[in-house]
Design a protein that fits this description.
The protein contains 16 helices and 18 strands. With 519 residues, the protein is of the alpha/beta class. The chain folds into 2 domains: 9-121, Chitobiase, domain 2 (2-Layer Sandwich); 127-503, Glycosidases (TIM Barrel), CATH 3.20.20. The strands form 4 sheets. It has an 8-stranded parallel β-sheet. α3 (141-153) packs parallel to α5. It is globular and about 80 Å long. The two termini are 39 Å apart.
Length: 519
Amino acid sequence: MNLLPQPLSVTPHAGTFTLPPDLAIDASPAHAAIVRRLLAPGTGLALPAAAGGAVTVTSDATLPAEGYRLVVDSSGIAIAAADDRGVNWATQTLRQLLPPSALRPAPTGAPLEIGYVTIEDQPRFAWRGVMLDVGRHFMPLPDLFHFLDLAALHKYNIFHLHLSEDQGWRFESVKYPRLQEVASWRTETRKHLDEHGDGTPHGGFYTQDQLRALVSYAAQLGITVVPEIEFPGHVLGVLAAYPELGNHPETGYATATSFGIFNEVLNMSDDAMTVVLDLYTELLDVFPSPYVHVGGDECPRVEWLDNPAAQALAERRGLPGPDHLQRWFTEQLRDWLAERGRQLVGWDEINDEGPLEGAVTMAWRDASYGVTAAEAGLDVVMSPSPHTYFDYYPGSEPTEQYAIGGLITTETAYGFEPLDGIPAAQHDRILGTQCQLWTEYMPNLRRVEYMMYPRGCAHSEVAWSNPEGRSWAEFSGRLDAHLARLDALGVNYRPESGPHPWQQGGTGTLRRPDAHRIA
Protein backbone atom coordinates (compact mmCIF):
# COMPACT_ATOMS: atom_id res chain seq x y z
CA MET A 1 0.00 0.00 0.00
CA ASN A 2 3.10 2.21 0.00
CA LEU A 3 2.15 4.24 3.06
CA LEU A 4 4.56 6.87 4.31
CA PRO A 5 5.61 7.19 7.07
CA GLN A 6 5.37 3.46 7.66
CA PRO A 7 2.60 2.54 10.14
CA LEU A 8 3.24 0.30 13.10
CA SER A 9 1.12 -2.51 11.63
CA VAL A 10 -0.64 -2.96 8.29
CA THR A 11 -2.80 -6.06 7.63
CA PRO A 12 -4.44 -6.19 4.18
CA HIS A 13 -7.60 -8.23 3.65
CA ALA A 14 -9.42 -9.48 0.56
CA GLY A 15 -12.01 -7.08 -0.78
CA THR A 16 -12.49 -3.45 -1.79
CA PHE A 17 -14.68 -0.70 -0.39
CA THR A 18 -16.02 1.82 -2.90
CA LEU A 19 -16.79 5.24 -1.45
CA PRO A 20 -20.38 6.07 -2.50
CA PRO A 21 -21.41 9.64 -3.42
CA ASP A 22 -23.69 9.81 -0.36
CA LEU A 23 -21.00 8.60 2.06
CA ALA A 24 -21.93 9.87 5.54
CA ILE A 25 -19.96 10.21 8.73
CA ASP A 26 -20.93 9.21 12.25
CA ALA A 27 -18.69 11.13 14.64
CA SER A 28 -18.58 13.99 17.08
CA PRO A 29 -18.79 17.40 15.37
CA ALA A 30 -15.11 18.07 16.07
CA HIS A 31 -13.93 14.76 14.67
CA ALA A 32 -16.26 14.97 11.67
CA ALA A 33 -14.80 18.40 10.89
CA ILE A 34 -11.27 16.98 10.86
CA VAL A 35 -12.19 14.22 8.43
CA ARG A 36 -14.15 16.56 6.13
CA ARG A 37 -11.39 19.15 6.09
CA LEU A 38 -8.87 16.63 4.81
CA LEU A 39 -10.97 14.20 2.79
CA ALA A 40 -13.72 16.24 1.17
CA PRO A 41 -11.77 18.57 -1.19
CA GLY A 42 -10.02 15.90 -3.25
CA THR A 43 -12.90 13.42 -3.25
CA GLY A 44 -15.78 15.84 -3.76
CA LEU A 45 -17.72 14.07 -1.03
CA ALA A 46 -19.93 16.18 1.23
CA LEU A 47 -19.64 13.67 4.09
CA PRO A 48 -22.86 14.68 5.86
CA ALA A 49 -23.37 13.76 9.50
CA ALA A 50 -25.62 10.75 9.99
CA ALA A 51 -26.06 8.12 12.68
CA GLY A 52 -24.89 4.82 11.27
CA GLY A 53 -22.82 6.49 8.54
CA ALA A 54 -20.29 4.31 6.77
CA VAL A 55 -17.44 6.42 8.17
CA THR A 56 -17.26 6.22 11.95
CA VAL A 57 -14.87 7.97 14.31
CA THR A 58 -14.66 6.99 17.95
CA SER A 59 -12.40 7.92 20.85
CA ASP A 60 -10.34 5.15 22.40
CA ALA A 61 -8.54 6.03 25.62
CA THR A 62 -6.59 2.76 25.50
CA LEU A 63 -4.59 4.02 22.51
CA PRO A 64 -1.40 6.04 23.11
CA ALA A 65 -1.22 9.77 22.44
CA GLU A 66 -1.62 10.47 18.70
CA GLY A 67 -2.29 6.78 18.06
CA TYR A 68 -5.11 5.43 15.91
CA ARG A 69 -6.68 2.31 14.49
CA LEU A 70 -8.07 2.37 10.94
CA VAL A 71 -10.24 -0.45 9.61
CA VAL A 72 -11.68 -0.63 6.09
CA ASP A 73 -14.06 -3.48 5.39
CA SER A 74 -17.46 -4.19 3.83
CA SER A 75 -19.24 -1.99 6.38
CA GLY A 76 -17.14 1.05 5.57
CA ILE A 77 -14.33 2.97 7.26
CA ALA A 78 -13.84 2.91 11.04
CA ILE A 79 -11.38 5.19 12.83
CA ALA A 80 -10.58 4.91 16.51
CA ALA A 81 -8.18 7.46 17.94
CA ALA A 82 -6.68 8.55 21.22
CA ASP A 83 -7.18 12.27 20.54
CA ASP A 84 -7.77 14.86 17.84
CA ARG A 85 -4.25 14.43 16.50
CA GLY A 86 -4.85 10.72 16.15
CA VAL A 87 -7.94 11.48 14.04
CA ASN A 88 -5.81 13.77 11.88
CA TRP A 89 -3.14 11.14 11.32
CA ALA A 90 -5.70 8.41 10.62
CA THR A 91 -7.33 10.62 7.99
CA GLN A 92 -3.95 11.40 6.43
CA THR A 93 -3.37 7.65 6.14
CA LEU A 94 -6.85 7.25 4.65
CA ARG A 95 -5.98 9.86 2.00
CA GLN A 96 -2.90 7.82 1.08
CA LEU A 97 -5.04 4.70 0.68
CA LEU A 98 -7.02 6.49 -2.03
CA PRO A 99 -5.69 7.22 -5.53
CA PRO A 100 -3.13 10.08 -5.60
CA SER A 101 -5.67 12.31 -7.35
CA ALA A 102 -7.71 12.36 -4.12
CA LEU A 103 -5.05 14.58 -2.57
CA ARG A 104 -5.73 17.39 -5.01
CA PRO A 105 -7.72 20.45 -3.86
CA ALA A 106 -10.64 19.48 -6.12
CA PRO A 107 -12.05 16.15 -7.37
CA THR A 108 -11.08 14.72 -10.74
CA GLY A 109 -13.75 12.05 -11.02
CA ALA A 110 -11.34 9.16 -10.46
CA PRO A 111 -12.88 6.04 -8.84
CA LEU A 112 -12.65 6.14 -5.06
CA GLU A 113 -11.80 2.65 -3.87
CA ILE A 114 -9.85 1.38 -0.87
CA GLY A 115 -8.71 -2.18 -0.29
CA TYR A 116 -9.83 -3.78 2.95
CA VAL A 117 -7.17 -3.24 5.59
CA THR A 118 -6.53 -2.99 9.31
CA ILE A 119 -3.91 -0.46 10.40
CA GLU A 120 -2.64 0.01 13.94
CA ASP A 121 -0.40 3.02 14.30
CA GLN A 122 1.27 5.36 16.74
CA PRO A 123 4.28 7.70 16.61
CA ARG A 124 7.69 6.73 17.90
CA PHE A 125 8.56 10.28 19.03
CA ALA A 126 6.40 13.06 20.44
CA TRP A 127 8.45 15.83 18.75
CA ARG A 128 8.42 15.43 14.98
CA GLY A 129 9.50 18.81 13.75
CA VAL A 130 10.42 20.83 10.72
CA MET A 131 11.94 24.31 10.94
CA LEU A 132 11.52 27.00 8.29
CA ASP A 133 13.70 30.11 8.32
CA VAL A 134 11.68 33.08 7.04
CA GLY A 135 14.29 35.59 8.17
CA ARG A 136 16.80 35.11 5.35
CA HIS A 137 14.01 35.01 2.76
CA PHE A 138 10.46 36.06 3.55
CA MET A 139 7.80 33.53 2.58
CA PRO A 140 4.30 34.94 1.89
CA LEU A 141 1.59 33.78 4.27
CA PRO A 142 -0.22 31.52 1.74
CA ASP A 143 3.07 29.66 1.25
CA LEU A 144 3.19 28.88 4.97
CA PHE A 145 -0.32 27.42 4.84
CA HIS A 146 0.73 25.19 1.92
CA PHE A 147 3.92 24.22 3.76
CA LEU A 148 1.81 23.10 6.71
CA ASP A 149 -0.44 21.00 4.48
CA LEU A 150 2.58 19.04 3.24
CA ALA A 151 4.04 18.70 6.73
CA ALA A 152 0.76 17.28 8.03
CA LEU A 153 0.58 14.79 5.18
CA HIS A 154 3.88 13.40 6.52
CA LYS A 155 2.63 13.45 10.14
CA TYR A 156 4.93 16.21 11.35
CA ASN A 157 3.44 17.75 14.48
CA ILE A 158 5.85 20.65 15.19
CA PHE A 159 6.39 23.65 12.92
CA HIS A 160 9.36 25.64 14.22
CA LEU A 161 9.01 29.12 12.71
CA HIS A 162 12.31 31.07 12.71
CA LEU A 163 11.08 34.66 12.66
CA SER A 164 14.16 36.86 13.04
CA GLU A 165 17.59 37.14 11.53
CA ASP A 166 20.37 39.60 10.70
CA GLN A 167 18.73 39.82 7.27
CA GLY A 168 15.16 40.46 8.36
CA TRP A 169 12.64 40.68 11.21
CA ARG A 170 9.26 39.07 10.44
CA PHE A 171 7.11 39.48 13.59
CA GLU A 172 4.90 42.53 13.93
CA SER A 173 5.50 44.40 17.16
CA VAL A 174 2.90 46.89 18.33
CA LYS A 175 5.26 48.37 20.91
CA TYR A 176 8.34 48.60 18.65
CA PRO A 177 6.99 49.39 15.16
CA ARG A 178 10.40 50.22 13.67
CA LEU A 179 11.04 46.48 13.63
CA GLN A 180 8.55 46.03 10.80
CA GLU A 181 9.24 49.45 9.29
CA VAL A 182 13.03 49.10 9.16
CA ALA A 183 14.27 45.69 10.30
CA SER A 184 11.98 43.69 8.03
CA TRP A 185 13.66 45.01 4.87
CA ARG A 186 17.13 44.86 3.35
CA THR A 187 18.35 46.85 0.38
CA GLU A 188 19.52 43.85 -1.65
CA THR A 189 20.83 40.30 -1.34
CA ARG A 190 24.39 39.07 -1.80
CA LYS A 191 25.70 35.53 -1.58
CA HIS A 192 28.88 36.70 0.11
CA LEU A 193 30.32 39.93 1.44
CA ASP A 194 32.77 40.15 -1.45
CA GLU A 195 30.14 39.79 -4.18
CA HIS A 196 27.91 42.35 -5.85
CA GLY A 197 24.31 42.30 -4.73
CA ASP A 198 21.24 41.81 -6.87
CA GLY A 199 20.08 45.41 -6.36
CA THR A 200 16.60 44.25 -5.38
CA PRO A 201 15.11 45.18 -1.99
CA HIS A 202 13.72 42.18 -0.12
CA GLY A 203 11.51 41.95 2.92
CA GLY A 204 8.15 41.55 4.55
CA PHE A 205 6.62 40.68 7.91
CA TYR A 206 3.59 38.91 9.32
CA THR A 207 0.98 40.79 11.31
CA GLN A 208 0.04 39.32 14.64
CA ASP A 209 -3.44 38.46 13.35
CA GLN A 210 -1.96 36.69 10.34
CA LEU A 211 0.17 34.58 12.67
CA ARG A 212 -2.83 33.83 14.88
CA ALA A 213 -4.59 32.50 11.79
CA LEU A 214 -1.53 30.39 10.99
CA VAL A 215 -1.48 28.98 14.52
CA SER A 216 -5.19 28.13 14.28
CA TYR A 217 -4.79 26.47 10.90
CA ALA A 218 -1.83 24.44 12.11
CA ALA A 219 -3.77 23.28 15.17
CA GLN A 220 -6.56 22.01 12.93
CA LEU A 221 -3.92 19.86 11.20
CA GLY A 222 -2.50 18.55 14.49
CA ILE A 223 0.57 20.81 14.35
CA THR A 224 1.96 23.09 17.06
CA VAL A 225 3.75 26.23 15.88
CA VAL A 226 6.87 26.85 17.97
CA PRO A 227 8.02 30.45 17.41
CA GLU A 228 11.59 31.69 17.50
CA ILE A 229 12.84 35.24 17.78
CA GLU A 230 16.55 35.18 18.38
CA PHE A 231 18.73 37.04 20.88
CA PRO A 232 21.44 38.06 21.69
CA GLY A 233 23.12 37.24 18.36
CA HIS A 234 21.80 37.40 14.79
CA VAL A 235 20.34 40.85 15.57
CA LEU A 236 21.61 43.22 12.87
CA GLY A 237 18.07 43.84 11.70
CA VAL A 238 16.98 44.73 15.23
CA LEU A 239 19.95 47.08 15.66
CA ALA A 240 19.17 48.80 12.37
CA ALA A 241 15.78 49.70 13.82
CA TYR A 242 16.95 50.44 17.38
CA PRO A 243 20.71 51.17 17.34
CA GLU A 244 20.71 52.06 21.05
CA LEU A 245 20.46 48.32 21.75
CA GLY A 246 23.88 47.72 20.20
CA ASN A 247 27.36 48.01 21.66
CA HIS A 248 28.49 50.69 19.19
CA PRO A 249 25.42 52.71 18.18
CA GLU A 250 27.63 55.56 17.00
CA THR A 251 28.79 53.46 14.04
CA GLY A 252 25.28 52.92 12.66
CA TYR A 253 23.70 49.63 11.66
CA ALA A 254 21.94 48.25 8.61
CA THR A 255 19.97 45.07 8.05
CA ALA A 256 22.43 42.55 6.63
CA THR A 257 22.49 42.03 2.87
CA SER A 258 24.85 39.02 2.94
CA PHE A 259 24.94 35.83 4.98
CA GLY A 260 27.25 34.63 7.72
CA ILE A 261 28.02 35.22 11.38
CA PHE A 262 28.28 38.89 12.40
CA ASN A 263 30.03 40.26 15.49
CA GLU A 264 27.22 42.72 16.25
CA VAL A 265 25.21 41.54 19.25
CA LEU A 266 22.79 42.94 21.81
CA ASN A 267 24.43 45.16 24.43
CA MET A 268 22.68 43.23 27.24
CA SER A 269 21.82 46.39 29.20
CA ASP A 270 18.76 46.63 31.42
CA ASP A 271 17.08 48.65 28.67
CA ALA A 272 17.84 45.89 26.14
CA MET A 273 16.36 43.30 28.49
CA THR A 274 13.20 45.38 28.77
CA VAL A 275 12.83 45.40 24.98
CA VAL A 276 13.45 41.66 24.74
CA LEU A 277 10.87 40.82 27.38
CA ASP A 278 8.36 43.21 25.83
CA LEU A 279 8.79 41.42 22.51
CA TYR A 280 8.42 38.00 24.09
CA THR A 281 5.28 39.23 25.84
CA GLU A 282 3.81 40.04 22.44
CA LEU A 283 5.03 36.72 21.05
CA LEU A 284 3.37 34.70 23.82
CA ASP A 285 0.10 36.48 23.18
CA VAL A 286 0.12 35.18 19.59
CA PHE A 287 1.62 31.70 20.03
CA PRO A 288 0.08 29.39 22.67
CA SER A 289 2.81 26.76 22.22
CA PRO A 290 4.19 25.38 25.50
CA TYR A 291 7.63 25.65 23.89
CA VAL A 292 9.30 28.91 22.86
CA HIS A 293 12.58 28.88 20.95
CA VAL A 294 15.04 31.63 21.83
CA GLY A 295 17.87 30.78 19.41
CA GLY A 296 21.15 31.23 21.25
CA ASP A 297 23.50 29.95 18.56
CA GLU A 298 26.48 31.64 16.94
CA CYS A 299 26.76 34.61 19.29
CA PRO A 300 30.30 36.07 19.17
CA ARG A 301 31.65 37.62 22.36
CA VAL A 302 34.00 40.04 20.58
CA GLU A 303 31.98 43.20 21.22
CA TRP A 304 31.42 42.41 24.89
CA LEU A 305 35.06 41.54 25.53
CA ASP A 306 36.22 44.81 23.93
CA ASN A 307 33.58 46.99 25.56
CA PRO A 308 34.24 48.57 29.02
CA ALA A 309 30.49 49.04 29.47
CA ALA A 310 29.91 45.29 28.98
CA GLN A 311 32.73 44.50 31.39
CA ALA A 312 31.21 46.80 34.00
CA LEU A 313 27.78 45.25 33.38
CA ALA A 314 29.14 41.75 33.94
CA GLU A 315 30.80 42.86 37.18
CA ARG A 316 27.61 44.51 38.42
CA ARG A 317 25.71 41.27 37.77
CA GLY A 318 28.29 39.21 39.61
CA LEU A 319 29.53 37.37 36.52
CA PRO A 320 33.12 36.14 36.01
CA GLY A 321 33.37 38.27 32.87
CA PRO A 322 31.48 39.64 29.86
CA ASP A 323 31.78 36.29 28.10
CA HIS A 324 29.16 35.04 30.60
CA LEU A 325 26.56 37.62 29.62
CA GLN A 326 24.81 35.29 27.21
CA ARG A 327 24.42 32.56 29.83
CA TRP A 328 23.00 35.13 32.28
CA PHE A 329 20.59 36.33 29.59
CA THR A 330 19.38 32.81 28.76
CA GLU A 331 18.84 31.98 32.43
CA GLN A 332 16.77 35.13 32.86
CA LEU A 333 14.67 34.27 29.84
CA ARG A 334 14.26 30.64 30.93
CA ASP A 335 12.91 31.74 34.32
CA TRP A 336 10.68 34.43 32.81
CA LEU A 337 9.13 31.91 30.41
CA ALA A 338 8.69 29.31 33.15
CA GLU A 339 6.75 31.82 35.26
CA ARG A 340 4.32 32.06 32.33
CA GLY A 341 3.97 28.32 31.86
CA ARG A 342 6.30 28.06 28.88
CA GLN A 343 9.56 26.16 28.38
CA LEU A 344 12.66 27.56 26.73
CA VAL A 345 14.13 25.77 23.73
CA GLY A 346 17.56 26.74 22.43
CA TRP A 347 20.27 25.58 20.09
CA ASP A 348 22.90 23.49 21.85
CA GLU A 349 25.18 26.49 22.55
CA ILE A 350 22.93 27.26 25.53
CA ASN A 351 24.84 24.50 27.34
CA ASP A 352 28.36 25.71 26.51
CA GLU A 353 28.81 27.03 30.08
CA GLY A 354 27.26 23.86 31.51
CA PRO A 355 23.85 22.16 31.30
CA LEU A 356 21.02 24.69 31.38
CA GLU A 357 18.49 23.05 33.65
CA GLY A 358 14.84 23.44 32.73
CA ALA A 359 15.55 24.08 29.05
CA VAL A 360 15.15 21.90 25.96
CA THR A 361 18.35 21.44 23.96
CA MET A 362 18.14 21.36 20.19
CA ALA A 363 21.33 19.51 19.26
CA TRP A 364 22.44 20.86 15.87
CA ARG A 365 26.24 21.03 15.76
CA ASP A 366 26.58 17.30 16.18
CA ALA A 367 24.62 14.46 17.72
CA SER A 368 27.20 14.29 20.54
CA TYR A 369 25.80 17.55 21.96
CA GLY A 370 22.47 15.81 22.33
CA VAL A 371 24.07 12.81 24.00
CA THR A 372 25.82 15.06 26.52
CA ALA A 373 22.64 17.01 27.24
CA ALA A 374 20.58 13.84 27.73
CA GLU A 375 23.21 12.38 30.07
CA ALA A 376 22.96 15.61 32.08
CA GLY A 377 19.21 15.04 32.48
CA LEU A 378 18.01 17.57 29.92
CA ASP A 379 15.26 17.09 27.34
CA VAL A 380 16.65 17.01 23.81
CA VAL A 381 15.47 17.37 20.22
CA MET A 382 17.97 15.65 17.95
CA SER A 383 18.66 17.91 14.96
CA PRO A 384 22.29 17.24 14.00
CA SER A 385 23.35 19.10 10.88
CA PRO A 386 24.96 16.10 9.12
CA HIS A 387 21.53 14.44 8.85
CA THR A 388 18.82 17.07 9.26
CA TYR A 389 20.02 20.31 7.65
CA PHE A 390 18.16 20.33 4.37
CA ASP A 391 19.87 23.49 3.17
CA TYR A 392 22.78 21.15 2.40
CA TYR A 393 23.09 19.89 -1.16
CA PRO A 394 20.66 17.03 -1.88
CA GLY A 395 23.03 15.45 -4.41
CA SER A 396 26.58 15.65 -5.70
CA GLU A 397 25.72 16.52 -9.30
CA PRO A 398 27.62 19.65 -10.40
CA THR A 399 24.38 20.93 -11.96
CA GLU A 400 22.63 21.33 -8.60
CA GLN A 401 21.55 24.86 -7.82
CA TYR A 402 23.73 26.73 -5.34
CA ALA A 403 23.38 25.73 -1.68
CA ILE A 404 25.10 26.47 1.63
CA GLY A 405 27.44 23.47 1.43
CA GLY A 406 27.56 19.93 2.75
CA LEU A 407 25.76 16.93 1.30
CA ILE A 408 22.68 15.12 2.62
CA THR A 409 21.07 12.65 0.25
CA THR A 410 17.66 11.14 0.91
CA GLU A 411 19.43 7.96 1.97
CA THR A 412 21.56 9.94 4.45
CA ALA A 413 18.44 11.51 5.92
CA TYR A 414 16.79 8.10 6.18
CA GLY A 415 19.84 6.59 7.86
CA PHE A 416 19.64 8.88 10.89
CA GLU A 417 18.89 7.17 14.21
CA PRO A 418 18.01 9.73 16.92
CA LEU A 419 18.86 7.35 19.78
CA ASP A 420 22.36 6.43 18.59
CA GLY A 421 24.80 6.94 21.45
CA ILE A 422 22.05 7.70 23.98
CA PRO A 423 22.28 5.45 27.06
CA ALA A 424 19.11 3.41 27.52
CA ALA A 425 18.42 5.12 30.84
CA GLN A 426 18.21 8.48 29.03
CA HIS A 427 16.08 7.42 26.04
CA ASP A 428 13.05 9.16 27.51
CA ARG A 429 15.03 12.43 27.42
CA ILE A 430 14.93 12.42 23.62
CA LEU A 431 11.71 14.22 22.76
CA GLY A 432 12.21 13.55 19.08
CA THR A 433 13.89 14.93 16.01
CA GLN A 434 13.60 17.90 13.68
CA CYS A 435 14.82 18.84 10.21
CA GLN A 436 15.89 22.39 9.29
CA LEU A 437 15.40 24.57 6.22
CA TRP A 438 17.70 27.59 6.43
CA THR A 439 16.86 29.81 3.48
CA GLU A 440 20.00 31.74 2.56
CA TYR A 441 19.72 30.17 -0.89
CA MET A 442 16.00 29.39 -0.94
CA PRO A 443 14.32 32.59 -2.16
CA ASN A 444 10.83 31.11 -2.59
CA LEU A 445 8.60 28.18 -1.71
CA ARG A 446 9.38 26.36 -4.94
CA ARG A 447 13.02 26.17 -3.91
CA VAL A 448 12.06 25.20 -0.35
CA GLU A 449 10.02 22.28 -1.67
CA TYR A 450 12.94 21.12 -3.81
CA MET A 451 15.24 21.06 -0.79
CA MET A 452 12.66 19.56 1.59
CA TYR A 453 11.31 16.70 -0.49
CA PRO A 454 11.89 13.79 -0.72
CA ARG A 455 14.42 14.18 2.12
CA GLY A 456 11.53 15.26 4.36
CA CYS A 457 9.70 12.06 3.43
CA ALA A 458 12.67 10.11 4.77
CA HIS A 459 13.04 12.18 7.92
CA SER A 460 9.32 11.99 8.68
CA GLU A 461 9.61 8.20 8.78
CA VAL A 462 12.63 8.43 11.10
CA ALA A 463 10.51 10.59 13.40
CA TRP A 464 7.29 8.52 13.25
CA SER A 465 8.12 4.87 12.59
CA ASN A 466 9.87 2.24 14.66
CA PRO A 467 13.29 1.30 13.24
CA GLU A 468 12.60 -2.43 13.34
CA GLY A 469 11.79 -3.86 9.93
CA ARG A 470 12.71 -0.68 8.07
CA SER A 471 15.44 -0.47 5.45
CA TRP A 472 16.52 1.96 2.79
CA ALA A 473 15.83 -0.61 0.05
CA GLU A 474 12.27 -1.18 1.24
CA PHE A 475 11.64 2.51 1.84
CA SER A 476 12.86 3.41 -1.65
CA GLY A 477 10.09 1.35 -3.21
CA ARG A 478 7.43 3.01 -1.10
CA LEU A 479 8.95 6.41 -1.83
CA ASP A 480 8.64 5.89 -5.59
CA ALA A 481 4.90 5.36 -5.16
CA HIS A 482 4.59 8.24 -2.70
CA LEU A 483 6.12 10.66 -5.20
CA ALA A 484 3.00 10.17 -7.33
CA ARG A 485 1.09 11.82 -4.47
CA LEU A 486 3.52 14.75 -4.49
CA ASP A 487 3.04 14.96 -8.26
CA ALA A 488 -0.72 15.18 -7.74
CA LEU A 489 -0.16 18.01 -5.26
CA GLY A 490 2.18 19.84 -7.64
CA VAL A 491 5.14 19.70 -5.26
CA ASN A 492 8.46 20.78 -6.77
CA TYR A 493 10.42 17.88 -5.23
CA ARG A 494 13.90 16.84 -6.33
CA PRO A 495 13.84 13.59 -8.35
CA GLU A 496 16.01 10.85 -6.86
CA SER A 497 17.64 10.50 -10.28
CA GLY A 498 19.01 14.03 -9.99
CA PRO A 499 17.87 17.49 -11.10
CA HIS A 500 15.96 17.85 -14.34
CA PRO A 501 17.44 20.36 -16.81
CA TRP A 502 14.89 22.99 -15.77
CA GLN A 503 15.90 22.52 -12.13
CA GLN A 504 19.61 23.02 -12.72
CA GLY A 505 21.19 26.19 -11.51
CA GLY A 506 24.77 26.53 -12.64
CA THR A 507 25.10 29.36 -10.11
CA GLY A 508 28.06 27.92 -8.27
CA THR A 509 30.20 24.83 -7.95
CA LEU A 510 29.47 22.16 -5.39
CA ARG A 511 31.26 22.72 -2.12
CA ARG A 512 33.02 19.96 -0.28
CA PRO A 513 30.59 17.57 1.44
CA ASP A 514 32.13 18.49 4.81
CA ALA A 515 31.83 22.25 4.25
CA HIS A 516 31.00 24.27 7.36
CA ARG A 517 27.37 25.27 7.70
CA ILE A 518 26.58 28.78 8.87
CA ALA A 519 23.29 28.72 10.79
